[in-house]
Design goal:
Elements: E1 11-16, E2 21-26, E3 32-37, E4 42-48, E5 55-61, E6 66-71
Antiparallel strand pairs: 1-2, 2-3, 3-4, 5-6
Length: 84
Amino acid sequence: MLGTIDLGGIPEQAVGDGKGTLYVVMQDAQGSVAVVDVKTMKVTARYPFGDKGRCNGLALDNKNHVLFAACASSGNPPAQPPQP
């Protein structure tokens, strides 16, 4: 073991960019992503989602530099999508 990193909460899922940065979706009330520099093993940024919370999925599109986080206020999807 190389050490520990204080993420300031409970991590759910993480994804790395292959260049030394790790993105971790956090299980806090507001929902957030912690950005970790794996070389220094320190959190370098936090991106809160406001009131979205309950985030449990994370994916990274390295080519287009887009980070996707899956959050839901309910564990169950709606029976039918809202109609226009």
